[in-house]
Amino acid sequence: MVPEHWLHWSWLIPGYLQEPLYDLQGEAITIIERGELNLNDGPDILNARIRVGAYIYLGDVEFHLRPEDWFRHGHQEDQRYRQVVLHGVWRLSGPLPARLAERFRHVCLAGQLALPREAWQQAMEMLEGHLEAPAGEGARAVPGAEDLAQLSLVRLQRKTARFARWAEAMPLGEVFWRGVAEALGYTRNARPMAALMAAGSLAQLAGLLPRGWPRPLALWVHLLIRAGLWTALARHRFREGAPALRLAAWYLGQGVVPALQLTDWHFARLRPGNHPLVRLAALAQLLASRPRFNLFAEFLARAVQRPRPAQLLQAWQQLLLQPISPSLHQALQTLLGWPHLPTRPLGRQRARQILLNVVLPLLLLWARRTGNPGFALYLEGLYETFPGCEDPALFQHRRWPALPRDLQSRLRQSAFLQQGFLEWLHLQRPGFSPALCLHPKGGSSVSN
């Protein structure tokens, strides 16, 4: 049986429980706000917000290993638990007591982890061990290289499991483009970029492409309309008769309507190259690079030959580092008025990050689905030798404890260790101190 406080951590740290969760009646529960850990007596989580159907509930969340612990701990007579709106349990040991079922919704977490049980348990044990570091090291002491390696494998499992959930509703080729779009959105616009690709199928997109027009430009205008950005940001900046205007008129005549709104996007404090109009141009250029948008198949075809890692990385990068077409480049310059625009949809660093965060986990998912353990081992080996692709300044941030020089050197060179460090940051996210919820109400590892 797992410690109860692992359930608290899994709720508070995004990425360790499936979203949405499903209650015992099969209704979807969307977490709007996770709330805050209660450091005093009472419910485990305070002031959470959840959505069930058309209703939003504001209240507290309580966790137990079994439903009957609610009565064993005396919560039914405790006024502090009157605001509980959700009861999370690890497993069911029998039918839910009727008087408990009538009180609030219940979720069973053992079957709703966002990654395989072994990887989840490894992450929780890593966090547990990190909090039990010798006195004086502090709760934010950075793990060593071996710990980072374990966290890196957890991170890969978490990404693969996330793509597996996406793949329940769409083919792997479409999961690939949703992941690429999310990566191209960077931090501020990752969500709307991914939502844009999830709002329609590739077949629908291909069926609406007009003949006789440059594919990158046509795809870009289509994406702008679907993103809800055409009318607000683009339409009035082109002269009458401009190709972009004619394409937009054709799409609108075909019934293309926005899937997102202007308010879904972030524009403040962005570098020019990260502006949504530029990021959508990058996505359009990559989409246009293959006739049937089958770029994922190209990555797979090169990987199944199992070349040396350096050769495969070079071949993969060539698929992503393509120049922006002249017509699309000209349209961007007309729209934005910038004297200097990037000539490629993305740079080497971002290309490597897409390979690491999208292509590798998806190929690993493909290998497992097709029963190819040898190819899965090859991909895991590639992951462990992948060259560094994060800004070295990340590992020297003033907020983190000073890292040993040898570990800093290895972090600069190894994306594998970098991913472990990023997973450690994920566990130590701002505003959440796991040290406070190890045994938040004192006593044993199974708290009330």
Could you give the topology of this structure?
Elements (H helix, E strand, L loop, with lengths): L4 H8 L8 E2 L5 E6 L2 E2 L7 E8 L2 E10 L4 H4 L11 E6 L8 H4 L3 E4 L8 H15 L13 H22 L5 H13 L1 H13 L3 H6 L7 H12 L3 H5 L8 H11 L22 H12 L7 H9 L5 H12 L5 H11 L11 H22 L3 H12 L20 H9 L1 H13 L21
Parallel strand pairs: 5-6, 6-7
Antiparallel strand pairs: 1-2, 2-4, 3-4, 4-5
The geometry reads as globular
User: Oligomeric state of the chains?
Assistant: single chain
DSSP strand content: 5-15%
What is the H-and-E element order? HEEEEEHEHEHHHHHHHHHHHHHHHH
* CA-CA gap between termini: 16 Å
Radius of gyration: 24 Å
General description of the model:
- This protein is an alpha/beta fold.
- Among the domains are: 18-112, no CATH class; 171-381, no CATH class.
- The protein has 19 helices and 7 strands.
- It has helices at 5-12, 69-72, 98-101, 117-131, 145-166, 172-184, 186-198, 202-207, 215-226, 230-234, 243-253, 276-287, 295-303, 309-320, 326-336, 348-369, 373-384, 405-413, 415-427, and strands at residues 21-22, 28-33, 36-37, 45-52, 55-64, 84-89, 105-108.
- Strand 6, helix 3 and strand 7 form a beta-alpha-beta unit.
- The longest helix has 22 residues, at 145-166.
What attributes characterize this protein structure?
alpha/beta, disordered C terminus, seven-stranded mixed β-sheet, 7 strands, 8% strand, 19 helices, 48% helix, 448 residues
